[in-house]
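Need tokens for this chain, all 120 residues.
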Amino acid sequence: MPDIQMGLVESQFADIIWANEPIKTSELVKIAEADFTWKRTTTHTVIKRLCEKGLFVNNKGTVTSIISRDEFYSMQSRQFVENSFKGSLPAFIAAFTKAGGISAKEAEDIRKIIDSIEEE
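Here are the structure tokens for all 120 residues:
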């Protein structure tokens, strides 16, 4: 999968699309005006950019995803670990927990995830 970069506002707008898809561009214009105070042209420009990045497709005024929200953030997470920790998940976890640790509930949830992966 390609490395797709989005800024904060693009990410927030993409989240709106993912939460409401399929969604008409006219509805996105209304939401973007209310949430971001964007003009119609700005909304259409951002839709076009997100489509060019390969996240969404705009087919006759209806926007749907090519890549789901979970797939996108999974790719972003993997890319971050790859770039920042030479692909080492243990190194990432060590760095992540060093600053503030994790709760017992979080540790239990992580163990469950690992156990389910090992069972596969």
